[in-house]
C-alpha cells in the first residue's frame, strides 16, 4: 500500500508499462491524501476479478475498487488495454492514461453517464490525454 499521500504502482505482467503522469492525475482527481494502489495484471487475473466482482466471465481492461474513505485500488490489464486502444482510436500509452482517469473517476464516486464523461474530458484536456 502507498504512503499516506501517494500511489503505489505494481506490474504483475511482463508488459512494459507506458510512462504517464499517474501521480499527478491521482492527486488532481482524488486529492493529495488519497492512498491508491495501481496494479497491472494479466488477462487471467483480470478475468478472475471480473468474475468475482462483476459476475462477468471475461477479462476487462480496468477495474477500480474503493476500499475505504480516501483509499482505493485500480487494476489494469495491459493486454486488454492494448486491444481496446485500437477500438477507441488511441495509442496504447495514451489509452493507459485514459483508463487511469476513468478508474479515478469511479473511485471519486461517479457512475457511467454524462456527468462522468464531462469530468473525464476535463481531466483528459488538463493532462493532454
Quick overview of this protein structure:
The protein is built from five helices and four strands. It has 129 residues and is an alpha/beta fold. It has one domain: 3-Layer(aba) Sandwich (Collagenase (Catalytic Domain)), CATH 3.40.390.
Structure description:
The protein is α/β, with parallel strands linked by helices and 129 residues long. It has a single domain, classed as Metalloproteases ("zincins"), catalytic domain (Collagenase (Catalytic Domain)), CATH 3.40.390.30. The protein is 47% helix and 19% strand. A 4-stranded mixed β-sheet has the order 1-2-4-3, sandwiched between helices. Helix 3 packs across helix 4 and helix 4 crosses helix 5. It is globular.
Q: Unreliable stretches, pLDDT < 50, 5 or more residues?
A: none
Q: Given the helix and strand composition, which structural class is it?
A: alpha/beta
SS strand fraction = 15-25%
How many independent structural domains? 1
Mean pLDDT, all residues: 94
| Full CATH superfamily name | Metalloproteases ("zincins"), catalytic domain
Distance between the termini: 27 Å
What is the fold-level CATH name, i.e. the topology? Answer: Collagenase (Catalytic Domain)
Task: Identify the CATH architecture.
Answer: 3-Layer(aba) Sandwich
Strand order of the largest sheet: 1-2-4-3
Please give the largest β-sheet: 4 strands, mixed
**Total of helices:** 5
How many runs of DSSP E, i.e. beta strands?
4
| Gross morphology | globular
State the share of residues found in helices, binned by percent.
40-55%
Quaternary structure: single chain
**Can you tell me the CATH class?**
Alpha Beta
Amino acid at each position: 500500500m502507498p504512503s499516506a499521500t501517494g500511489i503505489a504502482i505494481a506490474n504483475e505482467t511482463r508488459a512494459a508499462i507506458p510512462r504517464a503522469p499517474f501521480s499527478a492525475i491521482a492527486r488532481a482527481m482524488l486529492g493529495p491524501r488519497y492512498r491508491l494502489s495501481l496494479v497491472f495484471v494479466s488477462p487471467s487475473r483480470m478475468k478472475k476479478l471480473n468474475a468475482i466482482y462483476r459476475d462477468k466471465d471475461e477479462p476487462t481492461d480496468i477495474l477500480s475498487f474503493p476500499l475505504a474513505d480516501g483509499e482505493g485500488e485500480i487494476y489494469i490489464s495491459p493486454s486488454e488495454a492494448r486491444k481496446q486502444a485500437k477500438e477507441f482510436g488511441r495509442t496504447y500509452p495514451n489509452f493507459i492514461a485514459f483508463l487511469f482517469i476513468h478508474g479515478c473517476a469511479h473511485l471519486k464516486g461517479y457512475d457511467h453517464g454524462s456527468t462522468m464523461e464531462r469530468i473525464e474530458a476535463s481531466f483528459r484536456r488538463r493532462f493532454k490525454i
